[in-house]
């Protein structure tokens, strides 16, 4: 290895300094986004594997056969784990979003091909937009896929614990439905959707069924005593599972499996109609890193079934203990009966108001005590049934050894905010409505000016370089997001994120 000179050393020093502002990726302090196996050797192994393929271009596995070999192994492992057979094929993608998007793109193209080759009497259907049906707890990646690929997303309301009624899904089936999606489990409340019932009903209508096991796949496979939820279920046509979640790989790796070859070929894009090299891509990117793939491969080799099973057992023990602990905190309760290493926590409204704990004030207080939880806004469904605003916990293997400190923080925080009313920005929202701002298109500068009025934006009037830190307390901000019309809130959120990466003004 080449020794780095002073100039390079000081560049890395600056990077280390920047990294200090980041959320803790290890140690179990952050209960979302990061998945710490608690095994430092796995991280070292992943880093070395990434380094070995650093200069490789994953675009072309014929020029870099190592990329194909790694992908074959990972797909093979996932196929066994998720009960596919010899006709099950797959791809390693850059993450859950890409896997979900490709599942939708595939379904759309399979659907469109069937319209063209079918009975001429059905031709007018081509004038319809294809539709995806899913419980309203389905991951936002499917909103994104529908948006990018021109499908309608038909969201089926769930009950207040996140469960969907199979009949509610079934009654929406029709010739324009290109895909039905269920989750194993869903992100917001950790509900394992009724995969077998939905997949068999869909199969009877000739509708493909995708199981989004992005978060759960590499955990549920070793969880034990579950109803079938993967390719073991007839009628499941594709499934996604993220290597960079409970596969403990660095970010940039997920697997998408398709039940059969002919379906999967619709996932590809190929063109020989330009003057350059023939392009054949199974995934969305062109030139791409093989780093996360190599790291994921190395981790899968190292852990094997037994290694995964041990880590999942630890997640399960920690999840069960936290579930019990939270249900015993007066004023809080776990939403429904989740499956897998996720929990959502809501106010227990069966106790008097002064005993209730608002999950968002609770999360803000827990944060001051050293653990970061994830706030989830309340959500009103198409049938007007509102899903509660909750706080989300993702439990990883490292959580178990942090249980004493974590339990203490969760209990203390609840005591500290018990009886405190939920944040309610209705006056701010009312003022906005009166000013007419809600109806108007927002320019970047107007959006920024509004944000600074809410204490979020930095300097108003579009001065560049206003990468503004978010407020320390998230509860009021999420409450605002809940009460504003969705499109307006989305526009403001875009502004917050866009400003983060604006270079400083030159004048
Ligand atoms: C995380 C997640 C996704 C999206 O995955 P990314 O890796 O964040 O792109 C999709 N579905 C579910 C259920 C998830 O939890």
UniProtKB/TrEMBL annotation:
One of its GO terms (molecular function) is transaminase activity. The keyword Transferase applies. Transmembrane segments: none annotated. Its cofactor is pyridoxal 5'-phosphate. It comes from the Bacteria. InterPro entries: GrpII_AminoAcid_Decarb, PyrdxlP-dep_de-COase, PyrdxlP-dep_Trfase, PyrdxlP-dep_Trfase_major, PyrdxlP-dep_Trfase_small. The keyword Plastid does not apply. Coiled coil: none annotated. Keywords: Aminotransferase, Lyase, Pyridoxal phosphate, Transferase. Belongs to the group II decarboxylase family. Sphingosine-1-phosphate lyase subfamily. This is Aspartate aminotransferase family protein.
């Amino acid at each position: 290895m080449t020794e780095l000179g002073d100039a390079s050393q000081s560049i890395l020093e600056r990077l280390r300094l920047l990294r200090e502002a980041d959320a803790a990726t290890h140690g179990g302090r952050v209960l979302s986004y990061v998945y710490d196996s608690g095994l430092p050797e796995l991280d070292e192994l992943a880093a070395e594997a990434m380094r070995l393929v650093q200069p490789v271009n994953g675009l072309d596995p014929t020029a870099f056969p190592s990329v194909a070999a790694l992908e074959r192994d990972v797909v093979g492992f996932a196929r066994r784990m998720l009960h596919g057979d010899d006709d099950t094929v797959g791809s390693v993608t850059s993450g859950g979003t890409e896997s979900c998007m490709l599942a939708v793109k595939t379904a759309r193209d399979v659907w469109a091909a069937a319209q063209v080759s079918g009975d001429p009497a059905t031709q007018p259907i081509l004038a319809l937009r294809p539709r995806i049906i899913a419980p309203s707890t389905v991951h936002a990646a499917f909103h994104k896929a529908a948006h990018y690929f021109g499908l309608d997303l038909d969201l089926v309301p769930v009950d207040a614990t996140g469960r969907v009624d199979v009949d509610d899904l079934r009654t929406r089936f029709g010739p324009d439905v290109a895909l039905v999606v269920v989750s194993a489990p869903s992100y917001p409340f950790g509900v394992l959707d009724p995969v077998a019932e939905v997949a068999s009903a869909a199969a009877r209508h000739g509708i493909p069924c995708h199981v989004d096991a992005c978060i759960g796949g590499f955990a549920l496979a070793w969880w034990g005593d579950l109803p079938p939820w993967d390719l073991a279920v007839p009628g499941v046509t594709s499934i996604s599972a993220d290597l960079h979640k409970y596969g403990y790989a660095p970010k940039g790796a997920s697997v998408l499996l398709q039940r059969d070859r002919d379906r999967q070929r619709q996932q590809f894009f190929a063109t020989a109609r330009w003057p350059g090299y023939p392009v054949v891509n199974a995934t969305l990117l062109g030139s791409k890193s093989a780093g996360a793939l190599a790291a994921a491969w190395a981790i899968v080799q190292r852990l094997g079934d037994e290694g995964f099973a041990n880590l999942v057992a630890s997640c399960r023990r920690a999840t069960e203990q936290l579930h019990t602990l939270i249900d015993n905190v007066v004023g809080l309760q776990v939403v429904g009966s989740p499956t897998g290493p996720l929990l959502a926590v809501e106010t227990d409204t069966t106790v008097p108001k002064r005993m209730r704990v608002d999950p968002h004030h609770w999360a803000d207080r827990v944060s001051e005590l050293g653990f970061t939880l994830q706030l989830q806004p309340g959500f009103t469904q198409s049938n007007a049934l509102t899903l509660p605003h909750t706080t989300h916990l993702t439990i990883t293997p490292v959580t178990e050894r942090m249980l004493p400190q974590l339990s203490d923080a969760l209990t203390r925080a609840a005591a500290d905010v018990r009886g405190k009313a939920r944040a309610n920005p209705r006056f701010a929202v009312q003022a906005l409505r009166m000013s007419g701002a809600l109806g108007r298109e927002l320019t970047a500068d107007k959006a920024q000016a509004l944000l600074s009025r809410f204490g979020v934006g930095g300097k108003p009037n579009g001065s560049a370089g206003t990468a503004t830190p978010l407020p320390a307390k998230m509860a009021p901000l999420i409450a605002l997001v809940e009460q504003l019309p969705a499109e307006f809130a989305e526009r403001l959120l875009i502004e917050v994120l866009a400003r983060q990466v604006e270079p400083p003004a030159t004048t």
